[in-house]
Amino acid sequence: MTDDSSAAPASANRSATPSGFAPVPYVEALEADVQNRIRDFQDPRQEWRRVISELVGTFFLVTVAAGAPMVGAKYPGTVGLAMAVVAPGLMVMAVIMFMGKVSGAHLNPGVSMAFALRGDFPWGRVPFYIVAQLLGACLAALMLTQLVGVSATIGGSYPGAETSPFAAMFTEALLTFGLVSASGAQSLGIIAATAVAAYISLAGLWAAPLSGASMNPARTLGPNLVGGDMSTYWVYVVGPLVGAALAVGFAYVLRGPGGGRSGSLAAQGALHPDIANPDKL
Questions:
Q1: Which of 40, 48, 155, 203 has its CA 20 to 30 A from that of 217?
Q2: 16 has which bridge partners?
Q3: pTM score, two decimals?
Q4: Which residues, including other chains, have CB under 8 Å from residue 41's CB and lie 6 or more apart?
Q5: What angle do CA 171, 218, 108 make, to 5 degrees?
């Protein structure tokens, strides 16, 4: 004969109350809900969080980078060259500070591809990042056209009047080499934000008259496409991509292969990073 006590329902072991059974304590239920939300946020399948971060971050970057010269054209004497080139650097600093831990705050197809080449960023995420960056840039340019009331080409990137397209391409490659080197220096938080912001500002101060100091295919695409002048856009694709690739090679010379913890965190943020070599710093 079997022992019926082992077959008793689990509910029989619960302490009874006048209303039936003892409820789960409120604090325990709240803690379980919080833990579930944390697990959901860190779930790598929640890729949309990273993508939205890149879209919004690039939108704000292009709003400032293209908006400064557009406002200057609308209201002469209000926005000078120094102001126009420092503003994007400060905006990038702000975006890194409040979005960097979610997506890495690339805001730039060249940076995304460089991190992937370095082994610090999964190639599978690159297309989503690039689409988000390009879309954010175009949305910013469309908004600026309606808001400011001047052509988006004024906020675009083009070779200077006395600069040939090939010279502008070389300038963009050189500037992007430095930008990616600063972005991929395995720094996090305020240190990374300050380094990148300082570099963007300083590069613009001397190179903006030559090429616009874009260093970013997305930043150039938005206003150039919306403004209807894509004649020299190739300069701002080839130059930054070549510069980014060279920066990856330079990083290998300095620090060896990538894929380590610090480089991956800088590239991906802290939202469930995919670290290829977790034992490597």
A1: 48
A2: 21
A3: 0.79
A4: 49, 271
A5: 80
Q: What is the distance between the alpha carbons of residues 18 and 23, in angstroms, rounded to a whole number? A: 11
CA 207 – CA 171 distance, rounded (Å)? 7
pLDDT tens digit sequence for 77-113: 999 999 999 999 999 999 998 888 888 889 999 999 9
SS3 19: coil
- Rounded to whole angstroms, the Cα distance separating 83 from 175 reads 19
HSE of 12, CA atoms in CB hemisphere, 13 A: 6
Q: Place 47 in a pLDDT band, splitting at 50, 70 and 90.
A: confident
3-state secondary structure of 16: strand
How far apart, in whole angstroms, are the C-alpha atoms of residue 34 and residue 223? 43
To which residue do tokens 């903006």 refer?
A: 208
DSSP 217-245: HHHHHHHHHHHT--TTTTHHHHHHHHHHH
H/E stretch holding 21:
strand 20-21
Cα(256)–Cα(178) distance, rounded to whole angstroms? Answer: 18
User: Residues 134-159: pLDDT tens digits?
Assistant: 999 999 999 999 999 999 999 999 99
